[in-house]
Design brief:
Elements lengths: L8 E5 L4 H13 L1 H6 L12 E3 L1 H11 L3 E2 L4 H6 L1 E7 L5 E7 L5 E2 L6 E2 L3 H9 L48 H15 L16 H12 L2 E2 L2 E2 L5
Parallel strand pairs: 1-2, 1-3
Antiparallel strand pairs: 4-5, 6-7, 8-9
Length: 230
């Protein structure tokens, strides 16, 4: 596979994804033209380019197609490699592996171009904490994209897990399974957070952890609370 001359080939997700929602939301915020013509959603009518399924599909195309660029989540950009030709002397070329090349993006304040990493993503989340809704509030309009601040990476999002608060409504659910699910969710937002950084995810700020705990306390089975917030 190769591109047509030096024309840049744009690569996007062919499947619906939160990654696409976050990326197109950012584009809609910084470009009125994009906002009016394309908009933001988990899937959008891309005006051009090639589609790949999942982060792996997009990364695979970018690796194979010269002069191509796409978007993947942070962990993929940081941990995937791509082939490179490196000089080994006297005109002999050898193949090697280099990290995926990715762009630094200008921050909201227009004072710097920032690397995408755990610290700059955390900075984007920090500014939103005071405006977050209650655990049982409306989160559909929450955004940490294009957040102000000199170190806030402009394309970022929370990761969400949707849970029915009345677990008896789920097929095959019993009280023990419901209790196990609640225990797992509690571990996710507390002790499990220590694994986030190694996976190139940002640990939840303490204020967000408390919001999540309150949400967990609202999960019931046959009307009975399974875990109560302190």
């Amino acid at each position: 596979m190769q591109s047509d001359g030096n024309k840049i080939i744009l690569v996007h997700r062919s499947d619906g994804s939160g990654t696409t929602f976050a990326f197109t939301s950012y584009l809609s915020q910084v470009s009125s033209d994009w906002s009016s013509r394309i908009g933001h959603a988990t899937s959008v009518p891309w005006p051009t380019g090639m589609g790949g399924s999942g982060n792996a599909g997009v990364a695979a195309i970018v690796k194979k197609v010269p002069e191509s660029m796409g978007y993947v989540e942070l962990a993929y950009a940081k941990t995937n490699t791509m082939a490179s030709l490196t000089g080994t002397g006297a005109g002999v070329m050898g193949s090697g592996l280099i990290p995926m090349t990715y762009a630094f993006i200008q921050n909201h304040d227009k004072t710097a171009f920032l690397d995408a990493n755990v610290n700059t993503t955390a900075a984007a989340a920090a500014g939103a904490i005071s405006t977050l809704p209650a655990s049982d509030g409306v989160w559909s309009n929450v955004s940490i994209n294009n957040a102000p601040g000199p170190n806030a990476y402009p394309i970022a999002t929370f990761t969400y897990l949707l849970v029915n608060p009345n677990l008896e409504q789920l097929k095959g659910m019993d009280k023990q399974k419901a209790q196990d699910l609640v225990a797992m969710l509690y571990w996710f937002v507390t002790d499990g957070q220590k694994y986030s950084t190694k996976l190139n995810y940002v640990p939840l700020p303490s204020a967000v952890q408390e919001l999540d705990k309150k949400g967990i306390s609202e999960i019931k089975f046959n009307g009975k609370q399974l875990w109560s917030y302190p």
